[in-house]
Every structure is written in structure tokens, then in C-alpha cells.
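The step that takes the researchers longest sounds almost clerical: writing a folded protein down as plain text. Below is the pair of lines this work produces for a single protein:

——
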Amino acid sequence: MRHYNYNIIAKADHSLIDPIIKECLNVDWTHPSFERHEEVLKAGRMIEYPFPVTTRYVFNEIDRRILDSTIPLLNWIKSLFEDHLWIRGEIGVLLPGSSLKWHRDKNPAFNWHELCTKIHMPIITNPSCFESWLLETGTDDVHMEAGTLYWFNHKEVHTAYNNGEFPRVHVILSLLPENRWTELVEVMPRLKNRFVYSQQIIYS
């Protein structure tokens, strides 16, 4: 069954997920270095990938271990989206008892989100974690299963919450069709060099 706000793309082999789980379980996600600064996302925690739409290219040892553990997973996802480019990505975390504010993904300078496909890969979750979209007559809620890759509708008003007892961890990626890259670089020319740099980091 196809849903308007989410869809299952594929299921990953445990060998791609287990190394990430191992690294994430050793992290204190309450540490200030993982804090978010976007107002609607402040309840979350993250490690951001060094993809073009980011300002972060310096990582500590913990960041690097976790990001490195995801590279086999990223390569697998890339094989499913061969005609797309990495634009932004993060290890997104929701602490127990936390939720994000209702929001649409957007950028005040240029809304590159409109050009992208967004996908979620739950790494660690629990039955009390949900993604939720705002409808005219209620909400559209889904519990995303660990190890399953989902298309995620980031263009509608949505939130996420974790009512469980331990952190929820997702790999979250924004992918741009290659044929839209020129359009994006014309508006944000600084991304051209950032793209080359980010691909060297991820695939080196």
C-alpha cells in the first residue's frame, strides 16, 4: 500500500546496521556537542554529515567513528539512488520523552528542500517512537521500523516524538536528482566545491 507521507523503499541487511548500533550505544547524546540550534528542532540531537549544505567539516573522534560506521550503509543507499547526489545528511537523535515542533523543512535563503528527496533509515528505535504529519482532520502517524529505508514527505507539516525509554537514532538524508544540480549551484555557487570535498570524505 502506498502512503502519501511515507513509503518503504527497501530493507537493509543487518550487517549494514549492526556496526552503527554498536557505535551509537556508546554515546552520551545529552552532551552539548550534539545540540541543535534550529528553533523547531532544538529537542533533537545530531551529527551532521560533511555534505554540501552544511557548515561543519570538523569532527571529533566520536563523530568520526559514528559517521565512518555508516559508510557501508550510505554506499548501499547510493546504489538505490544512482542518479541522485548527496546534499545534506545527519545522524538524527530524539532523546526519551522529547518531540520536535511542528514544521516543514525549508531554508529562508533558498528552499533547496523543494528539489530534494528525503529518506530516513531508523537505526535504533522503540514502539513508542512515531513520525507524524498534520492533517485537516487529525494526524497521520507511523512507527518506522529499524533497518527499513523510508521515503519521507518533508514538504508537509510534520513532527517526531519519542515516548520510549531510550534514544531514537535515524540516519536522515536529502538527495538531489543529478539533473537539478546545475539549478541549485546557480543559486548557491559555493556548493560546487563543497560537493567535491564531501564526496572525497565519504568515499575515501
